[in-house]
Amino acid sequence: MAKIVSNFFISLDGVVERPDQWHFPYFDEDMGAAVGRGVEAATAFLMGRNQYQEWAEYWPNHSGGEDGDFASFINSVPKYVLSNTLTEATWQNTTLLSGGSEQVAARLREIKEQADGEIAMSGSATTVRWLLANGLLDELRLLVHPIAVGRGQRLFEDTATYPLHLTSHETFKSGVLNLTYAPERGRP
To answer: Of 12, 20, 41, 155, which one's alpha carbon is 20 to 30 angstroms from that of 146?
Structure first.
C-alpha cells in the first residue's frame, strides 16, 4: 500500500508561497540529499490544478542540463491531478481526478491500495489541507528555513485543528530543519 507524502519548503512564520524568492540561499548538499531521497522513494506524484498547469507547461520541455534527472522522473512517473475545473490533462502519464469530495477521496484510497512506495507531493497547500481533512495524508515533510518571510500564503491558515506527531528530524548546517510529521489518527 502506498502512502501520500507532502513536501514543503516553509519559512519559520509558516509561509510556503514563492519559495523561489527566499529558499535558495539555504539550499546545500544536505537539503539536496533530502530532496533526492524523496524523489527516489516516489512511485507517483500528486498535485493540484495550479501546480499541474505550471509544471505541465515547464517540465515536458526541459530534459537536459541541471533539470535532466528531475525532468526524466517527473515526465515519466504516474501523475494524479485533483481538479474540478480542468477538463483534460495532456501531460504524459497524467490522470485527472475530479468530482465530489467523497468521490475523489474514494478514488485516492483505491490508488493508495493498489500502489506501492510513496505518492509524493511538492507544495500545493490547498491540496494538503484537503488531504488532511479527508484522512488521506500519511506524512508531512517540512524543510523549515531560518527566515521569517512576513507575507504570503501559509500552509495552515484558517483551517481546522490537525494533531500531528513528529516522526523524524534533523538539522542541516544551513540552519534548515528537516522535520517529518504524521497525522494523529482518531484525535480531534
So the answer is: 41
| pLDDT tens, position by position, 84-142 | 899 888 999 999 999 899 999 999 999 999 999 999 998 889 899 999 999 999 999 99
Q: Give CA–CA dist 22/17, Å, rounded.
A: 10
Segments forming the whole domain that contains residue 47? 13-161
Q: Which whole-number Å values give the CA distances from 133 to 56, 59, 148, 185, in the listed order?
A: 27, 30, 27, 11
User: Per-residue DSSP letters for 52-66?
Assistant: HHHHHHHGGG--SGG
Q: What is the pLDDT of residues 135-169, one digit of tens each?
A: 999 999 999 999 999 999 999 988 888 899 999 99
Burial class (CB in 10 A: 0-12, 13-18, 19+), 148: exposed
**176's grid cell:** 534548515
CB-based contacts of 151-155 (< 8 A; 24+ apart in sequence): 151/15, 152/15, 152/16, 152/17, 152/18, 153/15, 153/16, 153/17, 153/125, 154/13, 154/14, 154/15, 154/16, 154/125, 155/8, 155/10, 155/14, 155/16, 155/125, 155/128
Number of domains into which the chain is organized:
1
- Cα dist. 84→34, 35, 110, 181, 187 in Å? 33, 30, 19, 29, 30
Grid coordinates in use for 103?
A: 468521490
Flag whether 106 is in a domain: yes
